[in-house]
Structures are given as structure tokens and as C-alpha cells.
Amino acid sequence: MVDYSVWDHIEVSDDEDETHPNIDTASLFRWRHQARVERMEQFQKEKEELDKGCRECKRKLAECQKKMKELEVADAESGRGELEKLQAEAQQLKNEERSWENKLEELRKKEKNMPWNVDTLSKDGFSKSVFNVKPEEKEETEEQKEKKHKTFVERYEKQIKHFGMLRRWDDSQKYLSDNTHLVCEETANYLVIWCIDLEVEEKHALMEQVAHQTIVMQFILEMAKSLKVDPRACFRQFFTKIK
């Protein structure tokens, strides 16, 4: 049985829901994306402020402890009062340090539970490659698309089926790395049709396996589309994040 639980934590797209015909759909999707980006920026700002506060507290504590050591070495009677004052300050700073660290830990847990999306999956950048920039494509006719799909399938059907049967993330990544030509719409379309055929044949378990790989390919293509890059440039980043 294929485990689909990993997909429960991913926001696949800003435009996956149907909307009312009177709503400006494109504007709504842009607003959704902008709202998500703003939430991410606010979260990052909060994280940076907590990290800064924690570092500053540690710096003050280190300075306080340094002064305490200097007074202890001097061992002067006149410095006893100052030493006690520094000890009290050091204890207070230690309490503050624990408080900062607890807040940071809570934020890390919150970050871990945040849904993934095309922005978070790609924020570390892509592997440098000749495929990084997606060239402008001319609109193809239905006839051209059909011919392109047929030619592709005739040439790579065996490889597409092999990818559809893979189960492990590492195996899928390696296979696509060795066969980057498979990272395209034609592969996704073939896998969808194969899923339908398998369901008609009542081969449900096999259909679920192929469906899993179909979702993998469709998500990579969605990510590339949103970021305006060639899908061959971002599939490695997808696997790095999802693993």
C-alpha cells in the first residue's frame, strides 16, 4: 500500500479551487498567493527578532560572567558587593536566555507544522544547471500537442512505466536525474491515462502506486510553472524538501 500521508502537508496550488463565475479568479489567486507570502515574511521576521534577542542575551551573560571572574581573581573586599550584584544579574540573564530559547523552540515546532507550498519548497534556490531559465514557448495547436505526445510516448514509454512503478523518493530522484527528459507534461499525461486504464481493469493497488508517481510529476510541473523555470531545474529541490 502506498503511503499518501506526506501529501497532507502540502499546499499544491493557489488556483486549485473552483470559484464563482462572477469572481475575478485571477485576482483572487494573486491575492491568495500574496497573503501567503506576507504570512511567511511575518513569520520569518518574528523568527529573526527572537534569534536576535537570544544572541543579545547570550552576549550580555558572557560579559557578566567575564566581569565576575575578574572580580574573583582580584579577591578584593571592596569588590564583594559588586560581585554579588553581578551574580544576581547573571542569574536573571540565564532565566531570560531560557525564555528566549523556549520561544525559539516553539517557533521551530510551528514552522515544522506549516504546510509546504511552491514558495517554501523552492526558497533555498535551485541546483545550478543549464535548465535554470525557461525559454519563451510558442502556443502549440492541439494537433501539435497530440503529435508531440505520441512521439514522446513511442520513444520513452518503457522509461515512463519504470518511473511509475518506483516507490522510494531516492529511487525516483535518481531515475529522473539519469533521465531528465522525463520531467515534462508528456510523462504526467501518460501516467494519468495509465491510472485510468488500471482503474478500469480493476487493478486498484497498482493504480494507487502509479497515482502516487503521477502526483509527484504533477507537483514538480506545478512548482516549475509558478516559478517560471524549466521543470528539470527544480525537481531535485522538490525531492530534497519532501524527504
TrEMBL record:
<dbReference type="GO" id="GO:0050821">
    <property type="term" value="P:protein stabilization"/>
</dbReference>
<protein>
    <recommendedName>
        <fullName>Hsp90 co-chaperone Cdc37</fullName>
    </recommendedName>
</protein>
<dbReference type="GO" id="GO:0019901">
    <property type="term" value="F:protein kinase binding"/>
</dbReference>
<dbReference type="GO" id="GO:0005737">
    <property type="term" value="C:cytoplasm"/>
</dbReference>
<keyword id="KW-0963">Cytoplasm</keyword>
<comment type="function">
    <text>Co-chaperone that binds to numerous kinases and promotes their interaction with the Hsp90 complex, resulting in stabilization and promotion of their activity.</text>
</comment>
<dbReference type="GO" id="GO:0051087">
    <property type="term" value="F:protein-folding chaperone binding"/>
</dbReference>
<keyword id="KW-0175">Coiled coil</keyword>
<dbReference type="Pfam" id="PF03234">
    <property type="entry name" value="CDC37_N"/>
</dbReference>
<dbReference type="InterPro" id="IPR013874">
    <property type="entry name" value="Cdc37_Hsp90-bd"/>
</dbReference>
<comment type="subunit">
    <text>Forms a complex with Hsp90.</text>
</comment>
<comment type="similarity">
    <text>Belongs to the CDC37 family.</text>
</comment>
<feature type="coiled-coil region">
    <location>
        <begin position="40"/>
        <end position="113"/>
    </location>
</feature>
<dbReference type="InterPro" id="IPR004918">
    <property type="entry name" value="Cdc37"/>
</dbReference>
<dbReference type="Pfam" id="PF08565">
    <property type="entry name" value="CDC37_M"/>
</dbReference>
<dbReference type="GO" id="GO:0006457">
    <property type="term" value="P:protein folding"/>
</dbReference>
<feature type="domain" description="Cdc37 Hsp90 binding">
    <location>
        <begin position="122"/>
        <end position="243"/>
    </location>
</feature>
<keyword id="KW-0143">Chaperone</keyword>
<dbReference type="GO" id="GO:0051082">
    <property type="term" value="F:unfolded protein binding"/>
</dbReference>
<dbReference type="InterPro" id="IPR038189">
    <property type="entry name" value="Cdc37_Hsp90-bd_sf"/>
</dbReference>
<dbReference type="GO" id="GO:0031072">
    <property type="term" value="F:heat shock protein binding"/>
</dbReference>
<feature type="domain" description="Cdc37 N-terminal">
    <location>
        <begin position="1"/>
        <end position="129"/>
    </location>
</feature>
<dbReference type="InterPro" id="IPR013855">
    <property type="entry name" value="Cdc37_N_dom"/>
</dbReference>
